[in-house]
Amino acid sequence: MTTTKIDRRNFLKVLGLGGAGAALAGCDMPSYATLEEGEEQVFSYLAPEEYVIPGIGVWYASTCLQCPAGCGVHGRVREGRALKLEGNPKTKLNAGKLCQMGQAALQTHYNPDRITKPRVNGKDATWPEALAAINEKGGGNIVWLTGAISGHQRVLLDIHLKATGGGKHYAVETVNTKAWEAASADIIGDAHPNLHIDKARAVLSFNADFLGTWMSPVKFMTDYGRFRAAPRGVLTVVEPAMSLSGANADHWVAARPGSETAVALGVAHVLASKYGVTTTGLSVSTTDTIATMDASRVAALSGVDGATLSKIARTLVANSPSLVIADGHYDTAAAAQVLNLMLGNLGSTLTPSADLGAPHLTNIGGTTQALTAFAEDANAGAIDIAFITGVNPMFTAPYGLNMMDALDKIGTKVAITMFEDETTTACDVVLPLASPLEDWGTHVPAFGAGAGQIHIQQPLMEKLHADALGFGDILLGLAQDGGADGLDDFEDYYGYLRTAISALIGSDQEAAWNAVLQAGQTTAPTLERAFTINGDVTINVADTTAHGLTLVTTARQGLYDGRHANLPWLQEAPDQISKAVWDSWAEIHPKTATKIGVKDGDYVSIQSKGGSITTRVFIYKGVHPGTIAVPMGRGHSHYGRYATDVGVNPLNILDVDIDPRTGEINTDTTPVKVKATGDNRYLVRLMDTDKQYGRKLAATIPASQFHRTEGGA
Ligand code: SF4
């Protein structure tokens, strides 16, 4: 049980001296208006710094925090304002590329709905008043709810929690790769093996939208480009609702939601029985499980027929090396790794990752298991103060977690955030957070950055709002207040970070520091590792045939888990599948639509055990007939002028159905009833028709000559 209260002295010190002034000196940006010992100095551009040419932009390296992948960015700064972001060409992870979410970081930064002042019980307050409010009920068990976190922010958070008695840290991400990580750790002894899509000649993916939101999509897009260069690799995607990766596949297979494990084992069965692919290394029980997955059983469970299984197996055998990836359920990911073992992909398209020699900096990937644990602890009355940052549990939690009740049982809820959202409305104190483009940090990408790579986040410009504090500064203030050793000398997070990086690179010289900032990255020592194979894995095959219509909540590159719904660029960007903008929809297969009696644009109510949402129908062949797919991201009730009351949120009506192997909340197992409401309204789509009306805009062949989709779709 923790007892330490927050010492306002340190926070005020950080507020007065931290961040901007030191930051801008640190990254050699023009300091026309700086804060030094409380004194503001304003210079005219008539006498700019000698390296500043008005009208000419200067690029600075930093890190993108729009999703947990942690790509490197270059930001163009002109007259002290960040104007454009691009990928940092020097990083191995994203090699000069940036996705649309990364590009939209500017709208996060300049968003007119940013919180500019602390708030206490919904009213504007000063920092001293906010800290006093936290201390009022003060003491007790302090916990943190964050998204994925790594680098020196993680170090300070650990130090702060240890110093204040060891409260828990729940790292939450709705879109995560936990199933893949857990199965990979169990079967090949490596949760984050390097994946070489570019070296594969065939890729088979089950529910892993690697071009959209899975793991590190910008890296995978680049690798995918090489994969498609001659000799062109063959992509097969198996999933209940077409993703961006599925839309790019040569062969897209619709499987009943939750039945992908059966399909993967069915492919293994064909490999073993028809192509004599050895199952050496697999235990007898695993081999026996594969032996039971003949074509008729797989077809009954998944709707995927034997011819399709044979085609997939043939593709894998004919195009070696291959790579099989999967996510969603532990068993599916385990079956995928069994396929990799059978196909001999280890060592070619899957290679061991390296351990970071500085384990305290490694990435704590978020999970939904952590969200469940947080709700349980809160409901049990075990949390006195909760700091919440980088997550919006009131928006993402399924109804069964009773998040509102859970938050009600916490003594003091403190949101540290840039925006008001559903969660801040339930918090007692809201503290304004600096934007990632105004802040310092280090980030260790969980995947794909190269051995030991640490990405540096440096401010691109002065803070827009004087009262917003950097995340590292807040953590440093808390750690100092907790009496943590060795931190008293640091006046701000910049000072701490610079000292820590100097220790890491073995030099405290100005030139060495500037070289790190210019590169936007540095390297920590690593420890080699090798795969340790465990072929004795229990794979359970679910029977979801009795589920009827099943809700599948899909993540899209754009609004993601809903965090980007307040960015007009991303609301306006057409959805990769439906091409819809500024609204939600439900994807329904034509056969299912006929059964229900609905047509495009009809409103339907989608009812689960825990609630209902009403949205319009988008009839689409890219879903399994047993699926009703609703993209996550919209449906906010309180998230600024661009997101509030736009669309519906399918996450809140999900059942809390837990994968027993990972503790993760399944997003594709909630049975729903669908009923037409009688309303019909036009769904605004930027591509309203897929017909060319004779204009020959794109070369096509009749579908009858090219059976790309199978499995009932
Ligand atoms: S994948 Fe996109 S949003 Fe995520 S870190 Fe990279 S550029 Fe940013």
Compose a concise summary of this entry.
By secondary structure, the chain is α/β, with parallel strands linked by helices.
Please give a structural write-up:
It is a single chain. With 713 residues, this protein is an alpha/beta fold. It has 3 domains: 119-171 and 359-528, Rossmann fold (3-Layer(aba) Sandwich), CATH 3.40.50.740; 180-353, 3-Layer(aba) Sandwich (Dimethylsulfoxide Reductase, domain 2); 548-680, Barwin-like endoglucanases (Beta Barrel). It is 29% helix and 19% strand. It has 23 helices and 31 strands. A 7-stranded mixed sheet has the order 7-6-19-18-17-8-9, with helices on both faces. The chain has a 7-stranded mixed sheet with strand order 29-24-28-25-27-26-30. It has a 5-stranded parallel sheet with strand order 14-11-12-13-31. 56% of the residues are buried. Mean pLDDT is 91; it is low at 14-38. Residues 64, 66-67, 69-71, 94, 98-99, 101-102, 217-218 line the site of iron/sulfur cluster (SF4). Iron/sulfur cluster binds at residues 64, 66-67, 69-71, 94, 98-99, 101-102, 217-218.
Return the CATH topology of the largest domain.
Rossmann fold
Q: How many DSSP-defined strands?
A: 31
Bound molecules: iron/sulfur cluster
Please report the number of helical segments: 23
CATH class category label of the largest domain:
Alpha Beta
Q: What is the CA-atom radius of gyration, in angstroms? A: 26 Å
* 3D shape: globular
Helix content: 25-40%
Number of domains: 3
CATH architecture of the largest domain: 3-Layer(aba) Sandwich
- The SS-based structural class is alpha/beta
How far apart the termini lie comes to 55 Å
Largest sheet: 7 strands, mixed
Strand arrangement across the biggest beta sheet = 7-6-19-18-17-8-9
Average predicted local confidence, pLDDT:
91
Hey, roughly how much beta strand do the residues contain?
Answer: 15-25%
Q: Uncertain runs with pLDDT below 50, 5 residues or more?
A: 14-38
